[in-house]
Structure formats: C-alpha cells, structure tokens
Known about the structure:
The structure holds two protein chains of two kinds.
Chain A: E1 5-20, E2 25-41, E3 45-49, H1 56-63, E4 72-77, E5 80-81, H2 87-94, E6 97-100, H3 114-124, H4 131-144, H5 162-174, E7 180-184, H6 192-209, E8 212-217, H7 220-226, E9 229-234, E10 237-243, H8 244-249, H9 254-261, E11 313-317, E12 320-322, E13 333-336
Parallel strand pairs in A: 3-8, 3-9, 6-7, 7-8
Antiparallel strand pairs in A: 1-2, 1-4, 4-5, 9-10, 10-12, 11-12, 11-13
Helix pairs in contact in A: 3-4, 3-5, 4-5, 5-6
Chain B: H1 2-6, H2 10-15, H3 23-31, H4 35-52, H5 54-57, H6 91-127, H7 129-144, H8 147-158, H9 163-172, H10 176-189, H11 193-201, H12 205-213, H13 218-241, H14 253-260, H15 269-296
Helix pairs in contact in B: 3-15, 4-6, 4-15, 6-7, 6-9, 6-10, 6-13, 6-15, 7-10, 10-13, 11-12, 13-14, 13-15, 14-15
Amino acid sequence: MPGETILEVKDLRKHFPIRRGLFGRTVGQVKAVDGVSFTLARGETLGLVGESGCGKTTAGRTLLRLLDPVTGGSATFLGKDLFAQRGEELRRTRKHMQIIFQDPYGSLNPRMTVESIVGEALQIHGVVSDRKERRERVQGLLREVGLDPVRHITRYPHEFSGGQRQRIGIARAIALDPEFIMCDEPVSALDVSIQAQIINLLQSLQERKNLSYLFVAHDLKVVEHISHRVAVMYLGEIVETAGSGELYRNPIHPYTKALLSAIPVADPTVTTRREILTGEPPTPINPPAGCHFHPRCRFAEDRCRDAANPVPVYEVGEGHRVQCILAEKEGGRIVEHRPPQNAPVEV
Amino acid sequence: MKDTEATLDRSELEGASPGGRSPTAMALRRLFRSHTAVAGLAITGVLVVTGLLAPWIAPHEYWRISREAVMQAPGAIPGHALGTDELGRDVLSRLVYGAQISLLLGVGATGVAVVLGVIVGAVSGYFGGWLDSLLQRVTDTFMAMPTMLVAISVTAIMERPTLASLFLIMGFLSWTTVSRVVRGQVLSLRENDYAVAARSLGAGDGRILFRHLLPNCMGPIVVLATLLVAGMILFEAGLSFLGLGVQPPYPSWGRMLLDAKPYMEESPWLMVYPGAAIVLTVLGLNFFGDGLRDAFDPRMKV
Ligand SMILES: Nc1ncnc2c1ncn2[C@@H]1O[C@H](COP(=O)(O)OP(=O)(O)OP(=O)(O)O)[C@@H](O)[C@H]1O
Ligand code: SF4
Ligand SMILES: [Mg+2]
C-alpha cells in the first residue's frame, strides 16, 4: 500500500522554443507541459494517460532532469528541490530515479553486452569494486527480471526478443535500487501476449521493492490494471485525477469519458452512452484559449473559452480533481485557479 | 519470482548459440560473402604485408646504384626480375619499398585526418549551439580549400618535407568528410533512448560520447578511413610526382613515375610498374572500403 509522498510536482512547465530562419530566431513555443501538478507516494503507481503528443513523455523526462532547463514550476523529490540540484548532488539523486522506455530496440546500446548494459550504472556510481562483483550483481538482476543469468549475460541486444529486451531495460533501471521509475509506455510496442508478462513483472518488482511508478500510456485499459491513481492529460495539462476505481466508475471530464468509451466493453449487454472524440487534437503550439478541450466538447459554454479566467480545478470527492465546469453539477468546489493564458502567437 | 521465471522463453534459450555474437562479428561475416570485398581485402593484404616486410622481401637495397646495369629491361639480367632504372637501381626493390612508403603515409595521414575529424565532428554534434556553428564554419572553410594546391604551396615552401610533416599536412587537409559524417551520426544518436538511459544513470558527457555514441559510429568511420587511405596514397603519389612529396632516396611510387618520365619512350616499364602499383592498390582499398560499407550498413551514405 502507498506510503509517504516521495515526489511532489507543482505547476510543472516545459516549453520548447520553435526556431526559424538562418539565425534560429525564436518564433514561438511548443507548450508541451503547461502547468502540471501531482504527488506520488512510496509504492504507488500513478497512471498518466492521454493522446499522442499531449506531453506525457516530456513531463516524465523533465522530472528526471533529462530535458533541462525546466520552464517553470517546482518539484520536491525525497525532500529535496529537484530543479535546484547540480553536479554531484544531481548525480546522486539520479540513483533514485530511473526510466523504462517504450521502444525495446532503441533503448539498448547495440554494441554493448547485457552485462555492460545492466552493470553500467553500478560502475558509474562505484557500487562495485571489480568485474567479478559486477558480474555477480548483474546475474542477480537478470534473475530478478526473469532472464537466464548465465546464458544471457554475454549476449548482445539483437539476440533477444522484444519482451526479453524490455526485461533487460528493466534490469538496468532497477540496478541502483531506485525509489521512482518513470515507465514510458513500457508495453505499447510489445505483442499483446507479452504485455501481461511485463506488467506482472513490474508489479511484482513494485511489491518487493516498494517502488513508485509514473506509468505513462495512451490508453486507459493498460493503466487501469496497474495504477492506484490515474491522471488524464490533455495538451500539456492534467484535466482529471482520481483513484483508478473512482475514475472508471465516475468520470467527469468529457475527455476522460471519451477515452473510457474507446475501451471495448467485455459485456455486450452493457449499453453505455459512447462519447466519440471528433476533430483533430489541436497542437500545443497554439492551444485553444480557456479549456483547451472546448473545440471538441459538446458541453462547451462561453466561460470555457475565457483565456483571462481559465476553467479552474474542482475537487469532487476525496482525491478526485477535475478541470471542467461540469464538476459544479457534481458538487465540486474550486481548489485551484489557473493563471491567465497568453494571447496566441503568430507562427 | 516464480511467475517471472516461468515466463522465460525456453525455446529461444535452447536454440541460441553460447556466448554473444557482436554486431561487428556479424558485419565481418557479411563482408566475406562479397567477392569484390575479398579481392580488395587481398590486395590490401598484399600491400600491408609487402610494406611491413619490405627489407626481407626486396631482393636488393632500394638505393644501391649500379653503373653496369643501367636501364635494363625486365628479365634482361639475372637478379633484376623487373629490370633497373636510370641509375641501375633494382625496380622491384624500389616498388617494394614504395609500398612501405605508401602504407606509412596513407595510414599516417589517414590517422591524422580521422583523429581530427572525429574530435571536431563529435564535439560539434554532441554539444551543438555556438560551438557547433563555429566548428561548422571552420569545416566549410577547409572544404572550400583547393587541397592539392595548398599542399603544393606548403610543401614547396618547406623545400624538403619530412615524412612526418607530409602526413601531418595531408591529414590536416583531409579531415572534413570524417567530421561531417561523425557530426551527423552523433547528432542523431544522442537523441537515442540508450543515450538518454545513460544520462539518467548518471553518465557524464565523456562516457556517453565514448562508450555509447562513438562506438556506434565505428562502421562509417572505418569505411571512410579505408577510402581515405586510398585517397592519401593518390595524394602522396601526386605530390611526389611533382617532386614535392617524398624526397630521394626514399622510393615512392609517385617519385618513381617522375624519375621515369624522361625515359618514357625507350623504357616504358619504368612508368608501367609504379603506375600499375598505384592503380591496383587504390582500387583494392576502394573495393575493400565499399565492401565494408555494405557489410556494416547497406543504407549508409559515405
Ligand atoms: N525536443 C523537442 N523539441 C520540440 N518539441 C518537442 C520536443 N519533444 C517533444 N516536443 C513536442 O512536445 C509535445 C509533447 O510531446 P511528448 O513526446 O511529450 O508527447 P507524448 O504525450 O509523450 O506523446 P506520445 O504518446 O506520442 O509519446 C509534442 O507536440 C511534441 O512535438
Ligand atoms: S470546461 Fe467546458 S469545454 Fe472544457 S471540457 Fe468542461 S464543459 Fe467542455
Ligand atoms: Mg511519449
């Protein structure tokens, strides 16, 4: 069961400059992550879902300090300000936060053996003193992720299947005994038959090591199974957060409902009203003013389009927050006002 | 623990060979399937062996002058299978030592070019920003230089360039292709997930560059280097033919061509042998280089 908070993110922003022309003039910003807040407890999995391009990867990588500099906001990780850390201090913090990738092919260096891939972190942080010790540690890690510690250790990545490679990536991520792992769509590229195995592996590792996951996915079905809580992201913002049972029973944001109705229902007698997503997702370069979702929303009112006074965040129940005026009908109370938005830029 | 072990793919375990087969090993297997590549490798091998073992292979000292045996046709007198030149020196011996000079200058100059090119390209591609812009303009400048003319001017000023100064000059004028290729590779590889993973493990720039990015540029670098050796041998022959390269008494193939020029009519073999040696060697190295390229990555553009 989730314990104390280890990661607290407030109003995280990461914008990418758009440069044009010979001198690389900045002509605009891609607001990939634009004011994201959440907390993560020890042993907890927070699912992060949303369409492609909504900023899930950017949010996770910014928090892992892989996309410096951060544009705005703050994060406290293990009691320390994450974005103030530099040099040796940051290097030590890196031991506690890791990443697992979507692509099992691109995420392993093709010229390194499993032993060097999984053991690299041990070497970097001086955890092992010699090759023999490193080999033993790597063998232990391979065993933990369900690979053969003897036969697999001298092989190169191309000799493995997608699922096995993903296990190697997981072994690399847990090598330093981290507290927090960002799993960036770790099963999206795998066969359906393999997906469950990897999810089970991640869950059993979490139980044994009390790991915290930020689990990114673009569909709610994968996330439902593994997450304690789920955050739904749309164009750089989190539009709804709730415990995963609550979110599936009682979604409020029309976007969440649309995502949920995209999940095939197993029981054919269940007839739910399906919310269909129409229109292309707008780009994070010039997101629609006010509630970014309003061009695709059939409940949109005038105040949904107000850029000076954007739709606030409501709380409709214990830990269930939603950034949508429909929360008012559910008795939601405002817990966070969103800052006024800038006028759109010409690109 | 139980469930994860049960998910092991047994069949895959059983079928696979013991130990790892590296990507390099696989590339070499592909290399040996190509006839032209093997032919190129053979010619290159002959050059290397001849160059290294020149003192044992050559029947005479390359500098030994003989008044009695001047301009002898091949086979005309015993002990000089390929005849003698205008000073009575053994042509075969001079060819053999010429291979040594070609090898030395080709590899030396290529070494200089590759080291410079890899440093400039890697720094440029990895760090980007103003440093990249600056280094790219420097590269452009070098690319715009008429290489041969610059080499001619510099060596002419030096009057009698030493071997070391020759390969420094040649290497210094020839690193741009390497730097462009390495920069492009590093630029795309550094966004790779395994580079991101290394950074998240706490690896520094040096480690990411040397352990992760550059080893994955080795294919193109080796291919380019092989082709560069061929280019350098031609470069050296050109300079020596103008009398500006390797200085007597060292026998360079280019120098042999120059020395033979006045006697083209009466003793054509004096030009034919070094000429053929140059063509064959360059051809062999190019075959080999192309074969390497195909073996490492058929889509590679070098
Ligand atoms: N380095 C970058 N430079 C400029 N724009 C970027 C960069 N990285 C991401 N973006 C943009 O930021 C937005 C969010 O990208 P991100 O990769 O975080 O989305 P995602 O939710 O992870 O999508 P996916 O499901 O496709 O992985 C996209 O519009 C993307 O084009
Ligand atoms: S805030 Fe308005 S536009 Fe946005 S989702 Fe809710 S109802 Fe629709
Ligand atoms: Mg992503």
